[in-house]
């Protein structure tokens, strides 16, 4: 660990403070809740994010019509990468990792490039492109680490609000069962609504340990209710093996994907760097520690290392997951050791497929209801920060422009950006990233000395 990081960790251990708004933690960043609580809290993190985590490789498998064995390899490789990168994110490895309770997962912006490269060249070439992109991400992490100075509270709050509201579409798609036979059925909608109600009741009326496990308890109840309603088919568990050891280069030796493909993937990694910066600053704020440059550098370098490692074993590129913001705010559990166990549990699921299969059976309605609440919690953190820091018309202009562009892009009709070159289109059509970038630019262009009180 660098001297700068050692000093910061020492300060974290000595006390927690900072302006974290309504977030109140029962377990602080460097607290160890004990083996049982750590395990249960860690599994809770994984349950909230698991379906979204494996959804990426499953979508790629469906789009490329991959055989079942190849799909399993892609899911397994992704879980290995996520597990190792999550442990590094929480515990650190030299200058790599922000040492924050951040779970790593798949960034869906990479689905298009992976499918295109696989069709034009090969799946092995797509994995090569991801490994190259991961190396670039790792290399430029010191530069990205300096971005924290461009994220004053109004930009940080806008970033978090964009992330929360921008992910709502994913949440409602999952909750309604979009793309599945259960889409829009009364039982599906009812289960999703029940999950939200249960979280509210447990969070409001339960105390201590049970309240901190509100998401875990809610999903377990939803799981058993779904089983009783006949929504869970255990044949998938029967087919899954007991032990599986992922192998490097499962799709063949590395293959050059072409310059345009590499540029496209690198642009995607830039998008992950921007979002990761916002996530890192948000989690730092909630945990009551300074959002310093070394944490951002550690987070971005971990994105690169984790993505390259995931691709090495046939998985997808990774990024930090914004659900952490909602989980920590709701449960009051901000311990990085909890998330480190979650990473270990992900590795266990990759090595013991039957465990992963049991969790993968979590019905969409159950997970979607929880995700909707989590994304709402993420947005509420952003609103809280904005409300306490928007003191001028300048700040209002930054917020309005960033939200208008960010949410407008996400709501744009198909084909609206076809005139933009493909390599840039991936970046331009990511409303969250474009909204964040616009907020950063406007913060620089509108000097504070020209503020006019609203």
Question: How does this structure look, described?
Answer:
- The protein is mainly alpha-helical and 454 residues long.
- The chain is built from 21 helices and two strands.
- The protein has helices at 3-14, 35-63, 68-91, 111-120, 123-139, 141-144, 153-166, 168-175, 186-205, 208-212, 214-228, 235-239, 259-287, 293-312, 323-331, 336-351, 353-360, 364-389, 393-410, 422-428, 431-445; strands spanning 104-106, 318-320.
- It has a two-stranded antiparallel ribbon with strand order 1-2.
- The longest helix has 29 residues, at 35-63.
- Mean pLDDT is 84; it is low at 1-18 and 450-454.
Show the helix and strand layout.
Elements: H1 3-14, H2 35-63, H3 68-91, E1 104-106, H4 111-120, H5 123-139, H6 141-144, H7 153-166, H8 168-175, H9 186-205, H10 208-212, H11 214-228, H12 235-239, H13 259-287, H14 293-312, E2 318-320, H15 323-331, H16 336-351, H17 353-360, H18 364-389, H19 393-410, H20 422-428, H21 431-445
Antiparallel strand pairs: 1-2
